[in-house]
Amino acid sequence: MTFRKVMYLSVVACFAVLAAASLAQTLDVDAHDSGAANRGRVPTANSSQQALRKSVSPAMSPASAGDDDENTTPTAWWIYTGQSPTAVSDTLTNENARIIDITVDSFSPYSFTVTYVQNTGSYAKAWWWYYGINATTLSSLLSTNNARAISLKAYDIGGGQIRFAVAMISNTGADNKAWWYYYGQTISDLFSLASTNNARLTTIQSYATEGETLYTAIMISNTGADANGWWLYYNVTPEFIGSTLTTNNARPLYLNNAGGGLFNVVMESCANGCAYWWWYYGVSIDQAVSIGLQNGARVTNMDDYPGCGGTCVIVSMLNNSNEITTRVGTILRANDPGGVQGLYLKEVGGSVLAALEDGVPYEPASSIKVLIHLYAMKQIQNGAVTLDTPVPHYTNGPESCPEPPTVSGTEPLLTALQEMMWHSDNARTHELTDYFGDSNINAFALSIGMTNTSINEIIGCIGAVPDSMTQDDAAVLYQGVANQTLLNGLNRGIFYSLMAGKAEYEAEGYDWTGLWDGDLPTIISQEAPAGYTAAQELNFMNAMNLAYKAGNYTVCTPGCVVDYAISGWFEVPFCSGTTTTYNQYAFGVFIANAPNGTTAQTNFFNAAGELMREQVQAGLDSCLKKSMNIVKVSPSPAKFGTKTVGTSSAAKTITVHNSQNIAVTGVSITTTGDYSQTNNCGSTIAAKASCTVSVIFTPTTTGLRYGALVVADGASNTPQGTELSGTGK
């Protein structure tokens, strides 16, 4: 995320005396009760001091504009504590930021806790901020600027002299509201004023002056588009806040420390739906920021109080993620698995479509094996090895910690790669990292831009330093393969043919994590518009492609945590007239260091394929009642039966058909494994034409022998291909 400059208006400091009103001892009361039922859920908090928290699940159509405490358009945001006036100025300038909440931590010298948003898009406003001003100056500035306050804090600098820190926005255009602000009030005064003004509170702050507790508040007219049920409670416990939010079907609009473990809260009704929201107490500011990022949220209001080894905060948050991130993030966080959850979706050559904790390093478990796979394919492309190169065969077993390795002769590099990527074989992985060298593989990762990725331990064993990867890094790898900057067309096709997904399903009849044979057909069935037959849905699915690597660890030292991760690539056909093109995507999700293993596993498998949903839906919509004009290989898969080792089968004919309205150029064809081919395709296949490939199976050893026919060309769905299988006896 990049940050730019914001408008900053200079500080005005003035001094005056404000007489304090008397303290009212009214009971907790509510106003404008909506009487709606609760719709609550508990989100994830990655805090060692987890606090009472609630959030509301709304309709998935967040507002794109409005006041900052209602706006859920994703934006950059920051919180800083202990900021000097100069530091505030620097943040405003350097980050193009705007203050939405400000608290005076101290006034000699001045120090602030400040919440910012980036002053762009629907958050862009003409605005001002001031501190150290008296009531007269505050009134004058609001009038001069034709502004309304959005954050107002009073503080006594001694002898009952009240000063204010304020952030205000221009009260014009879409931001124009009837509004009021008050200071030196009792709770009963505030309710009376709200009733008189037909208004509802949006902020409240208690402050001490000359032995009394008084309040500042901001109100807006409770009419028109701003009309809503609301409540104000003061001097209440967190437990009271939590239960009352549920009872009222409300969300916390503003939270304020009242002292002595008690708090003031302004709530607004969610009877008509609220964006996703959260609130926490009993966490440090660092924990609050971490929780906000984990939730894909931004902090809208925060206040501090003693505790947490120094300072605790009570904080409210609002969703700050787009629809895909919100939907899949909610699946990952369901029932609070703990740890960290993340996701990433990017169109190859296009924009990021979803992101949550995508730059956070996590233990990738077996999903990092794709890096070893790519490194080996790169060595093949560079001519250093071939798929037939013999490598020492480690026989410890797929699920083992293969150290020390048990060596039994050699096997072709192809077999080792296939077993590592299809069946996640740890012994084969170890033989490949030993053969190529961890340091070489890690240096390669760094050279292609995977700056937070490294293999530090023998995969399948628990070392002192865990392996590391980020979803951003995984996307670098999968995008580089997809756009052929890391592998050429043929080697790209071989790379995919050795991975879980479509290729493994074609060869073995099942897919390692169930994305191709479970998640994807379900998504297609659910998202296909009316008019699709089952055959057309299957045809659409077969025109797609999917390749990925997944993994998981359980680590107990002695308490157990689990790690689940998947990253990969998929492509979706899109139809326009008589033309079919393909969009490619890099995707991934992870759950790391989760103490609730059962929940983490459930959430991971529920979320693993969900990043494909919106893209598949769009492709289905575009291809309704249209033929997909693509290059297709058939039969797929191709099976050769049983043959004696060292003898050759009869040739099997495989057809490459170009149903496009244009010729396909740059055609190149290869086979892998115990298969050879000849073809009459040449370098070009004319529009609506076909060519044939004759494939022969010659098993080199007994048992099932897998291979692939790979066709690389200039079509939008390159590479095409089919998995080959036969049995040697």
Question: Would you summarize the structure shown here?
Answer:
By secondary structure, the chain is of the alpha+beta class. The chain folds into 3 domains: 40-320, no CATH class; 347-623, Beta-lactamase (3-Layer(aba) Sandwich); 631-728, Immunoglobulins (Immunoglobulin-like, Sandwich), CATH 2.60.40.10. Helices cover 25% and strands 36% of the residues.
Can you put this structure into words, describing what you see?
The structure is a single chain. With 729 residues, the protein is an alpha+beta fold. The protein folds into three domains: 40-320, no CATH class; 347-623, DD-peptidase/beta-lactamase superfamily (Beta-lactamase, 3-Layer(aba) Sandwich); 631-728, Immunoglobulin-like. 25% of the residues lie in helices and 36% in strands. The strands form eleven sheets. The chain has a six-stranded antiparallel beta sheet. A four-stranded antiparallel beta sheet has the order 26-28-33-31, with no helix packed on it. A four-stranded mixed beta sheet has the order 27-35-34-30, with helices on one face. A hairpin with a 2-residue loop joins β13 (250-259) and β14.
